[in-house]
Amino acid sequence: MDDVLLDVQDLKTYLPLEEGLLKAVDGISFTIRRGETIGLVGESGCGKSMAVRSIMRLAPNFANISGRVIYHPQEGDPVDIVQLDAHGERIRDIRGGEIAMIFQEPMTSFSPLHTIGNQITEAIRVHRTQDRKQAHKIAIDLLGRVGMSNPSQRMSEHPHQLSGGMRQRAMIAMALSCEPSLLIADEPTTALDVTVQAQVLQLMRDLQDEFGMSILYITHDLGVIARMVQHVAVMYLGKIVEFTDVDSLFYQAKHPYTSALIKSIPKIGKKSRRRLESIQGAVPVPINRPPGCGFFPRCSVAIPGLCDRVDPPLVQVAPRHAAACYVYPEVAEAANVSELEGQGDGTR
Predict the structure, then answer these.
(1) 3-class SS at 118?
(2) Residues 9, 77: one domain?
């Protein structure tokens, strides 16, 4: 456990609404080790962003968060982030200082009233040094390291004066200004064109090597996952349905949802005129969720009488490979549902 940085255990985020109870995150567990890159992947509405916002204690005030998020700092004792006051001093020290986050659209994170330089400098002064001149120097250096041209000039510019790619670089600079142990990147390249996206991804990899930080990468883009991460957690309807290393995910996917995602990727150089495969239906809203596997209505290998009655647990079904699907006997055994197996039609 010496190299564990963040240990998430049975994290749940429930939001009571007028329509019913929305289970945005419904009992997810995973571990991030020092220097490791983990990918959290799934369609929009699967709970990825709410999961990381819960980890950062940025979920809505009325959200009910339970479980454990154990952060292991370089110095001092481990701390359970879930137990911290969401507006207290300790979580503010962790958020931004030890765990940083970059978002999909920088314009929603930067203040339009202040210059880029002022905002990065202020973050440095809050978490690293009170010396204004030193903070200003660090900010200029960071803007240069993330590939900003004329960093001294950029310091005096406002967010709207920068292109999308430059704003994203500025956000990365601000996130790295306090040399965090963990960087959480929530769809950071979705709004960028392909060329700029490639530049930003390469920048993040270079900076990870330089700073030795861990990265939790949230995206629906499997191409980004293939390029960026070492291990992948696939989320569906608030749950992790598959967890493995990135190579096993693409070449030996176990869960029907993961397989369907991979099949929907366009094949470069393929001459066939067949239409792209797609997953039928859409991710349902997780309000008053019925029992059973959330993917059951869209699954081509579902077992009626079983999959629609008991939610499958996430179980190891191959070396270093876990999946939550009753296709695998290990899952049925773990759920203790053998008595239900004969009630379906046996469809595979």
Answers:
(1) helix
(2) yes
Dump the DSSP string for 168-220.
HHHHHHHHHTT--SEEEEESTTTTS-HHHHHHHHHHHHHHHHHHT-EEEEEES
Q: Which of 280, 303, 326 is the last residue of a domain?
A: 280
Asked whether residue 347 is domain-assigned, the answer is: yes
pLDDT per residue as tens digits for the range 78-92: 999 999 998 898 998
**Mean residue pLDDT across the chain:** 87
Q: 63-72, 96-105, 208-217: which range is least confident on average?
A: 96-105
What CA–CA distance (Å, rounded) separates 69 from 81?
5
List the one residue out of 60, 73, 62 whose CA is nearest residue 7: 73
The reply to whether 8 and 91 lie within a common domain is: yes
Q: Classify residue 104: in a domain, yes or no.
A: no
* pLDDT attached to residue 168: 83
> Residue 156's domain spans which residues?
113-174
Residue 168's contacts (CB-CB under 8 Å, 6 or more residues apart) are 102, 106, 188, 189, 192, 196, 200
- The torsion angles phi and psi of 317, rounded to 5 degrees, stand at -115, -5
- Together in a domain, 57 and 194: yes
Choose the weakest-confidence range: 115-124, 153-162, 202-211, 324-333: 202-211
pTM over 0.70: yes
